[in-house]
Amino acid sequence: MSDIPYRTRIKFCGMTRPGDVRLAGELGVDAVGFVFAKGSPRRLEVPQAHWLKAAMPPVVALVALFMDAEAEHVRYVIEELRPQMLQFHGSEDEAYCRSFGLPYMKAIPMGAGSDPAGMVDRHPAAAAFLFDGHGIGEPGGSGMRFDPARLPGNSRRPAIVAGGIDPDNVYDLIAAAHPWGIDVSSGIESAPGVKDGAKMRRFVEEVRRADCAEGARNED
């Protein structure tokens, strides 16, 4: 049986406007990410996040993103918003990530000096890994790309790829790397946190076009 996914999952991250969240649902994305990391131009406060969540259809998963946050703040966000998954972008260890009782995704920096295989080994309970082009200690959403050939082979969890992905290159990325999922933020924006509806729509179209092409090749 082929290990190529039947379809590529899509996560739109860094949402800041209810209309963008609503359109993401209409386009059929699998998840949206709300950023609570300090210093991010897409950072939300909980009252703002409530407005965004109200625009979500029930079949779209909410992922709450943190970076070296105090545990009390993570628990506060969980209590208020009830996300389906947590996403950690900092130096959080396995015990910290597991302590909140929710599935979690660990972001693996792929920039210079990173040790992606080692980070994967140190988080055996992660539900998925997000491989991003940022460097160690840097937030995601930077738009930095990396060579998908560098993806570590020791992960038995779903691999989600991020970093410098946009409607113009996502087709080729899927054809080359066959990731389980794609996470996009700056690649569908007109400004940090401001999503571009046309880019959002074309991004989804390109992912589905790539999936159809992979399906046709698998049938040959």
UniProtKB/TrEMBL annotation:
Q: What is its EC number?
A: 5.3.1.24
Per UniProt, which keywords does this protein have?
Answer: Amino-acid biosynthesis, Aromatic amino acid biosynthesis, Isomerase, Tryptophan biosynthesis
Q: Which InterPro entries match?
A: Aldolase_TIM (IPR013785), PRAI_dom (IPR001240), RibuloseP-bd_barrel (IPR011060), TrpF_fam (IPR044643)
Q: Which GO terms describe its molecular function?
A: phosphoribosylanthranilate isomerase activity
Q: Highest taxon of the source? A: Bacteria
- Write down the chemical reaction(s) this protein catalyses: N-(5-phospho-beta-D-ribosyl)anthranilate = 1-(2-carboxyphenylamino)-1-deoxy-D-ribulose 5-phosphate
Tell me which residues make up the N-(5'phosphoribosyl) anthranilate isomerase (PRAI) domain: 11-205
Keyword ATP-binding on entry: no
Pathway linked to the protein: Amino-acid biosynthesis; L-tryptophan biosynthesis; L-tryptophan from chorismate: step 3/5
Top enzyme class: isomerase
- What's an example GO BP annotation here? L-tryptophan biosynthetic process
Is the keyword Metal-binding assigned to this protein?
Answer: no
Family membership: Belongs to the TrpF family.
- Which NCBIfam families does this one have? PRK01222.1-2 (NF002296)
Q: What is the protein named? A: N-(5'-phosphoribosyl)anthranilate isomerase
